[in-house]
Amino acid sequence: VSAFGFMPNVNTNVNKAALGVGRFSGNKGPMVQHLKVGEPSSVTSLSAEASGEAALSVKGGGPLSGVDIPLLLYFLFWYVGNYYYNVTNKLALKAAGGSAGFPMVISSLQLGVGSLYALFLWLAPDARSKPSITMDDVVKMLPVAFCAMGAHSASVFALSSGSVSFGQIVKAAEPAFAAVLSQFVYGKKVSKAKWSCLPIIIGGVILASVKELDFAWSALISACIANLFAAFKGNENKKLMETPGLKDRLGSVGNQFAIVSILAFLMSLPLVLVKGESFGAFFELYKTNPTISFNLLASGLWFYGYNELATMTLKKTGAVTQSVANTAKRVIVIVGVAMVLGESLDPMKLLGCAIGIGGVFLYSIIDQLVGSK
User: Fold this and answer.
1) What is the pLDDT of residues 166-203, one digit of tens each?
2) Which region among 116-125, 195-204, 339-348 has the lowest average model confidence (pLDDT)?
3) Fewest CB within a 10 Å sphere: which of 147, 199, 219, 330?
């Protein structure tokens, strides 16, 4: 079960369940018995046929033949979750004083809210099976958790210093950082075609920055640090999943994300003190300001939910679909959040955004277009 309550591979079971109503094999009867008050016995079979037709209309033979409805719902709630996380996160940060307030406390507590929800899913009956990992597995997950914590904390600080749209535009340049790390740190060759896309991405970010009314160097630097941590996280996660038997011990993508979130939360606590922020002062503000209390809890749940759902969605799709999905998500968040929060949408900024995100999309698919060289 995902954080939003979806079950992986649910589409493969819908048809079987629907087609089986009233036609169970063996001695087991249907879970819901039909009342037999002057009712012909054929009603049960008619009910089964109607259910079967309904299932086929979702995937297999009706007007929506071939459409994976659960996957479409995954995409929908991934986008909705990402959008609402950015809105609630920004509202909480503004109410708490922006970059001069408690950005590190807020980023840490967002991870804490997600961690509590993960624990709830393990404890609730029939919600999610617990992992059976070893202490050695936990140790191997520490680098991924540290990078996840760094990426989230730096991202929150970037969004506290500048506009959400500008922060998202800079974060869209993550492939540039990933390419450098893959080539020079992890020894994984990046194709010449991909390298040729990086000037387009960087140029788009620069162009978007020229007319940014809410520009701040701290936002730019923090977003770049977030990109660096995210790139490290991607490479470290690939190394982690090569551990023999780890996937079986984790049990699910949701368990992996839950453990990483809990570890990231624990790692973030000392950094709050290092930055000089106070949990005590923040909670005094939290108790008296409903904008902070509501949006902190909401942003923590949205962050956990959309990230877990994004992971599940991307594992069910191909490389090109992932590229299109990520590109569309950036555009929806940048434009949608800017409109809701009243941020600037200067034509030059939009042009830079289009060039940068277009470059990211091209970077993602160019090897398939020209072949890796």
Assistant:
1) 787 788 777 788 888 888 888 888 888 888 888 888 88
2) 339-348
3) 199
CB 367 within 8 A of CB 193: yes
Please check whether residue 137 is in contact with residue 246, taking contact to mean a CB–CB distance below 8 angstroms. Answer: yes
Q: How far is CA 79 from the centre of its chain?
A: 9
Helix 164-171 vs helix 217-240: crossing angle, to nearest 10: 40
DSSP labels, 219-283: HHHHHHHHHHHHHHHHHHHHHHTTSTTHHHHH-SHHHHHHHHHHHHHHHHHHHHHHHT--HHHHH
Q: At what angle do helices 319-341 and 347-370 cross, to 10 degrees?
A: 170
Rounded Cα–Cα distance for residues 311 and 185 (Å): 25
Q: Check if the beta carbon of residue 240 is closer than 8 Å to that of residue 144.
A: yes
Distance between CA 31 and CA 11 in Å, rounded? 20
Measuring CA to CA, how many Å separate 12 from each of 2, 36, 261, 289? 16, 32, 29, 46
* Look-up of token digits 């877990």: 308
Give whole-number Cα distances, 18 to 9, 241, 307, in Å: 15, 36, 31
pLDDT tens across 241-289, in order? 888 899 899 988 889 999 999 999 999 999 998 989 999 999 999 999 9
Task: Give one word for 22, left, alpha or beta, with left for phi > 0 and alpha for psi -120 to 50.
Answer: left
Task: Decide: 6 and 71 in contact? Cβ < 8 Å.
Answer: no
367: its two tokens: 């090897």
Residue 148: strand, helix, or coil = helix
Region of 157 (left: φ > 0; alpha: ψ -120 to 50; beta: rest) is: alpha
